Structures are given as structure tokens and as C-alpha cells.
Amino acid sequence: MDTDSQHVNELAHASLVVMGEHLTPEPYLAESFHYEGNSKIYFRLRKGCRLESGKEVTSDTIEKTVAYYLDPKNESSFAKTAYERIKKVEKINDYEFRLITDKPSPSLLTDLELMKILDLDGVAPGTRPQFLRGAGPYKIASFSTSDIQLERSGQPCLPLPKIAKIHLKTVRDDLSRYLKLKRGELDLVLNDMNYRKVEMIMHDPTLPMSALSTDSASYAYMGVNQNSPNLRDPRVRLAIAKSFDLPELIRYKSRGFAKQARGMLADMNFYANLQVPVITRDLDGARKLLDEAGYSNGTNGKPPLHVTLKTSAGIIPVENARVLMAQAKEAGIIIEHRAYDWGIFFADVKSGNTELYTLSWTGITDPHLYFDLFHSSNIGKNNRTRYKNAEMDKLIEEGDSALDPAKRRPAYLKIQELAAADLPFINLWHPKNTAVFRKNITGVKVHPLGTWRVILAMSKDQDDPR
After folding, report:
1. Cα torsion angle, 286, 290, 295, 296, sign
2. What is 395-406 written as a DSSP string?
């Protein structure tokens, strides 16, 4: 389930669809797809796609893969979160089939990117084979906890990758990654280099490596527990948001490699409401809201607002928290910061043992995520801020009841306006995706979702600028 494992899966496996640069599903092993009514998605497979064993990918392969994901014995993490609405694979012929759902499931196409098509011959349900082989552009030659070797599989229905072999290394220290890249021990680092080093590499032509970045669909936010007595008043939540100077934090801490967020969805998303304003710093406005809510504005003699912010103990979350604390203090808001090891921190977030906390979501595409995070039925699950609003529930259900994106969009535009007014999340930023690479690596691009499929178009020249 971790991000790096999913990135390896993008190279060693293949799915029916992938998410394109505009955050919409595009055919991959499927040649085409379209909705039929409100509960069927028709697919036509590319002819000639092969599993690693050499067997052709057919509708029968898809049926077995779907059944394997949904079989409770296999305990797939995606079965309940993404695929439980699939009730049947209706095979038309070897290359055509329909996925039939029990009700409209507009996010299913997006979720199918995570469903890798598997070679299940000889694999019994509930077993834990060392490899689940698939139909990807690469195959796993060997692996350990710190080292994975991939070899080009020669998948005939997909473009042939230009690089025949890929050696993936685990390098846990940012400085070590930089030095290994400089010495030529690494060729490419995707989204794992400190922004300060990325900036330095971009502005130093004497180095043997280059860097580039692009806007991403990831999202950093501050969760606001609606059950906290200090935070129930929306004026308080807005006052906190107005106390932050996010452009300055982005400029100095992220070296400009982020974009202030107006909401959960990045501006490039089809469903994004670009009319929702970005909250700008307004200390006078924050003090006025605090006064109206019964807290100190610096002169009214009322008690100051005092809240607790929890983060993980990582260097970057801690540094960002310190900046936000200092900025809020200028509006008279006292934020007490507490940092914990990840396991303890995340357990507190899930149980609601927080007032404020900072987290992020990676690569948001379909707005169905609003159901998980803001619908009242998910309080105690993914609705970790305990947010409850009947109007929000109604709009989310409306957005999830149609398949046509144009028909879904009006509901999500209103959802974003309501979220901006209620502030269950205080929007922070969309971090940029980055690539740092040796200058003999060509064809380098960065995808808004950070996918490693961009490697498929890269090549390595023999001349190495050491």
C-alpha cells in the first residue's frame, strides 16, 4: 500500500487504464472504454497483450483478476475501498467485456489504475506467492528490502521502454542521495530530493546533474477537529487560516516548490472550482473574528485562543509547524506543537485525539474522495475531523449518483464552496513533483501524479558527465 511499492508496481505490472497528465483515465491494456447506462462500463482489450508467462491477456484474465481482488481470503486492501461495487465481469468475447456494478460508481475508472492485471495460473486464493506476475513493461528479476532489479519484458502491446534494465536502490538519507547522484552511483531521483538541493542543482550548471519540476495533484492540509470546543465556531477556523502567511512559508521552507491550495483539488483538475478564493493573510481580519467568537483580539481583555497542533516527528513537518505557530502568534493565537513518531501520531488522528494536525494526500484525481473525508457516514473512518453537515452529505451523494463528468461537476463546485466556508480542512499547498537526474539521462518528464511510468520514455546516453 505504500507509495514506493505502488511505483514499482507501475513498472512491473499493467492495468486496464492509467491516469493521464490531465488527471483523466486513459486506455492502457484496454484499447477503449465507455459507460453503458449507469451501472456498466464496456472495455475492449488491446490484442496481443501478453502476461509474463507468454499467455495472452483476454477477458478471462480480467475475470480471474477481479475475482482474486474481491476474494476475502486474499485480504486485498483495495477490495472494500475501491472494487466492492463490481458485481460481475460480463465476458462478450476474448477481447470485449463489461464491468457491472450494483449502482453508479463514477470513481471506479480512476480506481482501476490500481488493479494490476495478474497471471493467476496455479495461484490458489488466500495464498501468498513470492511473486504475482503480470503484464507490465518490466519484470522483476530480483529483489531485496534495499535493492530491486527490473528487466524489460518486451510487452508487445505497449511501447517498448528505451532502458533495458532498471536497478532500484533504497537510499534513506537525502544527503546520501545527492552525493550518490553527483558521483554517478545513481542516475535518477524522483520526488525524493530536498527542495533546497533541487533549487541548488537547478541554478548550478557546473554540476553533472539537472533538475525539473511540475505542479502536482497532491495536497497538504491542516485537519480541524470539529468536536474540539475551541474549534466548533467557523469564525475561529477562519481566523486561524487568516493568520497564516503561506506564500512566505512556501517561499522559504519549500523554496517555491509548492502552490498555495484553494481546496483539495489541484487547479488542473476538471472538477476544481477556480472561483473559490485562496485565503490570504489578514491579521486584522483574524483578530476581528476572534473577538466575535469570544477570544482575545489583543485589546478586548478576553482569553486568547489556545489550541494544540500535532504532527509527525519528521524534520519537514516539524519545521513547517514552527513557522505556522509563529505566524499564528502574531494574531494572538497560541498554538502548542506536539510531534510524535508516525505510528502514535496517526493513531491519534484516526481516533480523533487531536485539535489540529497536518497531513497530506498524494495524487488526488477523482472527487469521490470528498465522500471518504467529509461525508458524515465516514466519521470514525476517513472522516477524521468529525465533520458533519447535512448539506455537504446531500451534495456528495448527488456528485456520486452520476457517471457523466459534466453532470457530476456542478455538485462538486458547490461542495468546494461549502468546504471553503466550513473549513474542516485548512488548505495549505500543493507540493510540486521533482526529478533530479544525471545529464546523460534524456527524455525526462515529471507527471502531476508522480508516476514512475515517466521512466518508460527515458533513455541513458553512454557519455556520462562525471
Report:
1. positive
2. HHHHHTS--SHH
Question: Phi, psi (5° rounding) for residue 161?
Answer: -60, 145
pLDDT tens readout for residues 187-212: 999 999 999 999 999 999 999 999 99
Distance CA 111, CA 122 (A): 27
Distances, alpha carbon 227 to alpha carbons 224, 235, 335, 416, in Å = 9, 15, 17, 21
- Provide the whole-model pTM: 0.92
Task: Identify whether the C-beta of residue 218 lies closer than 8 Å to the C-beta of residue 362.
Answer: yes
3-state secondary structure of 285: helix
Q: Give the separation between CA 408 and CA 396, rounded to whole angstroms.
A: 10
- Could you read off the pLDDT of 245-279 as tens digits, one per residue? 999 999 999 999 999 999 999 999 999 999 999 99
Q: What is the chain's mean pLDDT, rounded?
A: 95
Stretch (H or E) spanning 334: strand 334-340
Residue 239 identity: A
C-alpha cell at 218: 497532491
The DSSP-derived string for 9-28 is HHHH--BSEEE-TTSSEEES
Phi, psi (5° rounding) for residue 387? -75, 135
Distance CA 260, CA 246 (A): 7
- The residue among 119, 145, 121 whose CA lies nearest residue 133 is 119
CA angle 301, 307, 312 (to 5 degrees): 155
